[in-house]
Amino acid sequence: MRTEAQAKRLFFRRIPLDCFGQFMGPDLLAAVRRYDDPRRRCRQMGLQGFLWLGLLVAAYTALPSLEAIFWRVGPMLASGAVLGCRLVSVSAFTQFRGRFPLRVLMRVWHLLADQARRSLDESRATWRGLRLWAGDGTGLCLPEELWVAFGAHKGCRGDGPAQGHLVVLYDLAARVPVRLRLAPYQTKERALAVRLLNHLGAGDLVMLDGGFYSIGLFAQLQRQGAHWLVPMRANGTPRRLRYLGPGDGLYEIRASQSYWKDVPEVPKTMVVRIITVHRRGFRPRRLVTDLVDAKAFPANELAEVYHQRWHIETFYRELKHTLKVQHWHARTLRGVYAELFFTMILACLTRLAMIEAAAKDGSVGPLSFGRCLQWVNIALAATATTAADQWALLYEDLLTRIRRCRIDVRPERNFERDRQKRRKTSRAKRLAASQEGQP
């Protein structure tokens, strides 16, 4: 009969990571085990237990406190199904988190993202031989203790909540975050993208928002061998060099003198391809790219490919509203990074399960991330009370439930973007018109 201390040691040092092997696979499991250094262990917690508890925090972060999150599983453990003991204390977890190297969490996240990308076949992972990426930024509310380091949104006149600027590099095929940069909100997106896009190379096509338009950034991607697709800035006046087709041509864009004078490696001019795109319900826009071969990369296909950039916007919605990433339980910058990395790990684990569940049916797109995440959260909590020989059945049951989490497809649905039409028939105007007609 094991004592309570022996049961805790068995659970937090061996069982959770073995269960994660159902998600990660044997290769990734072996790579993660290299970081399990006994010198970094607490009395009752090692790498495996820390990963399991961190993912539990990311899964149930909407709960008000770490005590509430741990007690989400604590009563099940206290029932005597497996351990017959309570979880480790909150203070033990936070102390371990403060000493645990963040680079290990980052490495686990990157390994999971790479595995998700390798899980797709070539036809689903690339477009005309190019892997599709998206880069964009968003504001992230942070704990009030970080207000001095990060500041607030300039529209709040310095009196708003602490906010950081988060920029993410996103794989559009696997739909997983790959890299991130977090900086004070006043930091420009282009400055963060310089380091973020160092990961790209030959055979990559990155789609950026209009805020990333910069010849310096284009030159950096050219040196790395990567390609880009980005909207032209509104006041841009390029000089046309060659006509390629309706709304398609080669143009020369020019950097401002102050730019290339201070940065010698930035060219004064650059020859690019500009495509004019007009989708129904949207304003016309010009897309700038270095894919100048009109036969190899038709303009209409480039316009459709750029429309996939919207997946990173839905990822930010999932990050803030589904994963509840802004409900922090840490009060230090190191703790915030740890919770952010655990959230990215949980997102990649969910996508891995979705990819495996959809392997027989096709794309991951028709599956609902929010509903799949609910079942993954339940599976993570259930590992504490499931015998080791039943984990394979637990994972198969998880995949079966994920396959049912399909999104309703509405092919004829569209969204009118002309807000002026809505204002003409708004509720306030209709109410005012009815009141004018009253005696």
Folded structure, characterized:
This protein is of the alpha+beta class. Among the domains are: 174 residues, no CATH class; 79 residues, no CATH class. Helix content is 46%, strand content 16%. The protein has 20 helices and ten strands. Strands 1, 2, 3, 4, 5, 6, 7, 8, 9 and 10 form a ten-stranded mixed β-sheet that branches. Strand 7 and strand 8 form a beta hairpin. Helix 2 crosses helix 3, helix 4 crosses helix 16 and helix 16 crosses helix 18. It is globular. About 3% of the residues have low confidence.
Give the low-pLDDT segments: 10-15, 78-85
Helix/strand-derived class? alpha+beta
Rounded to the nearest angstrom, the radius of gyration is 25 Å
Hey, roughly how much beta strand do the residues contain? 15-25%
Percent range of helical residues: 40-55%
> How would you characterize the largest beta sheet?
10 strands, mixed
Number of strands: 10
Mean pLDDT: 81
Total number of helices: 20
Morphology call? globular
Distance between the amino and carboxyl termini: 87 Å
